[in-house]
Design goal:
Layout: E1 8-12, E2 15-16, E3 23-24, E4 37-42, E5 50-55, E6 60-66, E7 69-74, E8 79-84, E9 89-93, E10 98-102, E11 109-114, E12 123-124, H1 127-136
Antiparallel strand pairs: 1-9, 2-3, 4-11, 5-10, 5-12, 6-9, 6-11, 7-8, 7-10
Length: 137
């Protein structure tokens, strides 16, 4: 996985293994931003897609807590697909990257850790507008 502007990165989440079960912890030293918002996607119907936008400032860290899904990433020049399927790895998506989430397996849960609270003005929801935005930067 490589984006031309280094806008994405797989980050290992600390994992504590023991016979009673594993435990992973996401703290402010796990991600390169202060955590302002946490939410999760679940019960996504077969064939449905989520995302379909970019952010001007917000950064996100996505984790497949259960099951798997694909994250389609585009920096305005190239597209790459990352499959998330391990609860001890997350995908850091910096600002200025278009993202779409697809191919959710049955029972999958996508945890999203965000650097900002919800601000509609931070979203770019049209891909052509996103490409124009990237070319102006």
């Amino acid at each position: 996985m490589k984006m031309s502007n280094n806008g994405v990165q797989i980050i290992s989440i600390p994992k504590i293994e023991e016979r009673r079960g594993n435990l992973s912890v996401i703290e402010n030293d796990t991600v390169p931003f202060d955590i302002k918002r946490v939410y999760y996607l679940y019960d996504v119907p077969t064939g449905s897609e989520r995302g379909g936008h970019a952010h001007k400032d917000l950064q996100q860290f996505l984790v497949a807590l259960s099951g798997s899904f694909d994250v389609v990433l585009n920096d305005g020049k190239e597209e790459t697909i990352v499959t998330l399927n391990k609860p001890y790895e997350g995908l850091l998506i910096k600002s200025g990257i278009w993202r779409e989430l697809r191919n959710f397996s049955s029972g999958s849960i996508c945890l999203v850790v965000a650097s900002e609270v919800y601000i509609e003005e931070d979203y770019i929801r049209d891909f052509d507008e996103f490409v124009e935005y990237v070319n102006r930067r």
